[in-house]
Amino acid sequence: MSDIHQPLVSVLVPIYNVETYLEQCLSSLAAQTLKDIEVICINDGSTDSSPAIIRSFMNRDPRFHLVDKENSGYGDSMNRGLDAARGKYVAILESDDFMEPDGLEYMVEQAERASLEVFKCNFWLYWSKPTENHSFRHNLYFPLASPEMIEMGLHAPVDYPEVFWSKASIWSALYLRSFLEENHIRFLPTPGASYQDSSFTFKVLACAHRIAYSGRAFVHYRQDNEKSSVNSKGKVFCTCDEHAEMRRFLDEDRPDLKAALDPIRAHVKFLNYRWNYGRLTPDLRPTFLERYTAEMREEVERGAIPRGYFDGTLRPSGDDQDRFRYFEPWEIDEVADIMNEPAYFAAHFASETSPDRAQTVRTYWEAGGPRYLLRVLRDKASK
């Protein structure tokens, strides 16, 4: 990669044993209507035919490049890709996904027109089996296609905290490379970890002043790759590492943002930990719940979640209420249970997904006997 020409976009493609899908992924980049790009394929020690597929593209298209390394995980692969990137902008495409031909051209046009640091688009959920299926996905808390989100226009995410608890989907966005470098935004290089887009996304949203969204979709986000981290149940605490990095980032790198963003960070943690708890098999949930309980207590001690929520001292108006407006009442009730009655939280969570009333009664009884049964009956009667 010695050419002095700076391409408009560097597309990073992290690759590990994905021979089944890689041809389709890289072909979608070769077919982009925007020609002034480089495709940086980061091979994370693949043992299948993935390296051969990469080299076949390199042999017929000089825009494709290879960063070949021993297996060290997704975060390190992405950082190696960022180090190699020369483009004005950086895009990311997962090696089992693919992109519509006009995706990069559209994103660059919008970013250039408004001098954006980040431009984020929608995406499709994609299944290739048993029959091909595409499903449109709104990747924000509010639908991207809604007039409210389109009219948001150019903004700083700190003014719209809802965007922090959207799906990360780092591969549906375009990033100004100088923005990433100036803010030291990189990935957490934890070997063997997953969900390493979480802290990266938080840092991007925390630092951006010029970001915009589009309801248009270009990336097809594959749902039927059995090797995807979404389908890995063994990585119990990976999301915890990501949230520790978010906290470190505010404490050490950007203390100027801590007052505004620490409550947002705590709410993102609550939501992500709740999601992670739900994806785990029943035998793994108790171990993670112990960590969940301890860290919610830490957030209260830290002040990121106000103690006043739980002792009745937080007023319904004023500066504190404005600062801590992110938790819904049911979420605060759930945080209280996670901290003080984790067995009840576990029983209640299990009951939400159980259609069997008899099993629900047994779940509450086994968790806390008549006290929990009376509580759930009382809660239902009050609604």
Summarize the structure.
This protein is of the alpha/beta class and 383 residues long. The chain has helices at 19-30, 50-60, 74-84, 103-114, 147-152, 177-182, 197-207, 238-253, 258-279, 285-302, 308-311, 319-323, 329-340, 342-352, 357-382; strands spanning 9-15, 37-44, 64-69, 89-92, 98-99, 118-127, 133-137, 173-176, 211-222.
Helix content: 40-55%
Rounded radius of gyration (Å): 22 Å
The major beta sheet can be summarized as: 9 strands, mixed
Indicate the proportion of strand residues. Answer: 15-25%
What is the molecular shape?
A: globular
Low-confidence stretches: 138-147
Please give the alpha-carbon distance between the first and last residues.
64 Å
> What oligomeric state is this?
single chain
Report the total helices. Answer: 15
Structural class, from helix and strand content? alpha/beta
The number of strands is 9
One letter per element, helices H and strands E, the order comes to EHEHEHEEHEEHEHHEHHHHHHHH
Residue-averaged pLDDT: 86
